[in-house]
Amino acid sequence: MNAPTNRHSGVSLQVRGLRKSFDGQAVLNGIDFEVQPGEIFVIMGPSGSGKSVLLKHLIGLESPDAGEILINGESIQTPEIASKYRLALVFQSGALFNSLTVGENVGLYLSEHRLKPPAEIARIVAEKLEDVGLKGTEDKIPGELSGGMKKRVAIARALVIEPQLILYDEPTSELDPLSAIVIGEEILKLQQRIHVTSLVVSHDRDLAFGVADRIAVINEGRILTIGTPDEVKRFDDPLVQSFLHADFKREPQSKSL
Predict the structure, then answer these.
(1) What whole-number percentage of the chain has pLDDT above 90?
(2) pTM check: above 0.85
(3) Domains of the chain (ranges, CATH numbers)
């Protein structure tokens, strides 16, 4: 990964014919989609649909059995190409180090790789924390933060490298509805301010329809449909509709005589 620069620009992402099996069990069955520069693209689907395995391929933790992943038309399966672009991942758990302060967590990449002097790192950290509404929290420790604040610290840490593509893994997981709205608003603000390309993996229907330019619905390792939120809502497929409208239904209790 290259050192951060002052440039902010989203990149395109193409996934072509991606296939992956484990012990003979197909998990990805020919995944195809394209994300435009600066777009918020949401991949949603039920548990076990292949979302997590797909994300691991995008960040290089898994290699496909077939197919390719390209950024701006270049295959990231080539190390020199992968290092050419600035990708950041916001982990589902936040993945903050409890032994470090908020400021130390956010500036960790810069300090560990000695990319900036301490004073400059402190300035960048303060700027990124302010960007996510956490100005002045540098000296707090993660244990003092709410779940939503931890997620925003994780976003600030991702911003330090001035990413061209941000991957979000279930960004509203374990959050209350109000905190989830705040995270969705942060994703939208980043698109508007720095035009970063965002790929969000989530089963949160409210988040998906609230932030997405386009949505892909995945099930059993296949893309069932891709479209705008309105197009996906109208897509006439029983699997898609059952996922979008799944809800708990309580049977009415009969009155005792």
Answers:
(1) 54
(2) yes
(3) 11-86+164-245 (3.40.50.300), 92-162 (no CATH)
| Residue 234, both tokens | 């109208």
Alpha-helical runs (H) found in the chain: 51-58, 79-82, 102-106, 108-112, 118-131, 147-159, 177-194, 205-211, 229-234, 238-244
> How many C-beta neighbours within 10 Å does residue 12 have?
17
Count how many Cα atoms sit within 13 Å of the Cα of residue 86 in the half-sphere of its side chain: 18
74-75 and 40-44 as β-strands: parallel, antiparallel, unpaired? unpaired
With a CB cutoff of 8 Å and minimum separation 6, the contacts of 231 are 225
pLDDT digits (tens, 9 = 90+) for 43-75: 998 888 888 899 989 988 899 999 999 999 999
d(CA 13, CA 72): 6
CA distance between the termini of the chain: 72
**Distance between CA atoms of residues 223 and 166, nearest Å:** 21
